[in-house]
Amino acid sequence: MASLAQQFSGLKCPPISTTKFSNSKNHYSSLPRKRSVISAAAVAITNAQTRERMKLKEMFEDAYERCRTTPLEGVSFTIEDFHDAIEKYDFISEIGSKVKGTVFNTDANGALVDITAKSSAYLPLREASIHGIKHVQEAGIVPGIREEFVIIGENEADDSLILSLRSIQYDLAWERCRQLQAEDVVVKGKVVGANKGGVVALVEGLRAFVPFSQVSSKSTAEELLEKELPLKFVEVDEEQSRLVLSNRKAMADSQAQLGIGSVVIGTVQSLKPYGAFIDIGGINGLLHVSQISHDRVSDIATVLQPGDSLKVMILSHDRERGRVSLSTKKLEPTPGDMIRNPKLVFEKVTSVGLFWQNKFAT
Questions:
Q1: pTM, full prediction
Q2: By the 8 A CB rule, do 345 and 332 touch?
């Protein structure tokens, strides 16, 4: 058996061609050098980013330097303008603080007010005025009007504020009453209620108490309801909410000005079989039936009616008892004129009145 070497030596193999390998070498050598190209591009991008970053750094450094050295350079408003803006649009929304606002809508229950806050504020009807009103317009609250309000609460549902004008008016009313008391003047008060001790009257929008002991007339509380009384201040205490007035003091001042024989203007209050009660500046005087005319008056209602305005002469004045006697008979140019032509009596009252004043004086 031939050896393995002999077997292999007997084999003839074709020569290996080098053409394929040489072509393959040429093929790889002809490919582009991608790695070197990518490296160059990366270097270019890195340089561009670096320049951009340097530029931004310079801008920030420049801005920082300007803010540090000249912070207001190029700003179109001053520090004063800034503070004015803060004061205009920023306010303290604490209970009791005052704010200014503009009404922009009203309804049956109140008004919406713009107070430059994050939400609008509301003015309830009951807080629109110190007086009893049925609609805010009665207090002059209409869209477009600008007022100063006081904050009295907050609506938790929408964080809107609740405003009041009544609280401001309430403070002003007490201040006005203190001033009127200091001046010792007579004011008018409308009787709106009563209790066992006296009557309640509205004065400057406040509820004032007038004790029965300080009411000059003998009228009952029911008779005084809805009537206006001349009053003078006795006590004004805002802290205790005490406002006490006197009708007697006011009447005493008025009566001090009444002189026998003087002619005053009065209003018929009521008619009685024996005469007519006449209101002369808050004082009730009696015009007896015998003092109406020189001629006999059988029915007073044919001559006078409640509400009539007339001129009367003071015949007598009992200050202690608060009684005043009046006469129109003495003003008649001729007897019976009050029955026939009362207008003529009042037109000629000046000359006739002067005659009687001179006569009483003597």
A1: 0.52
A2: yes
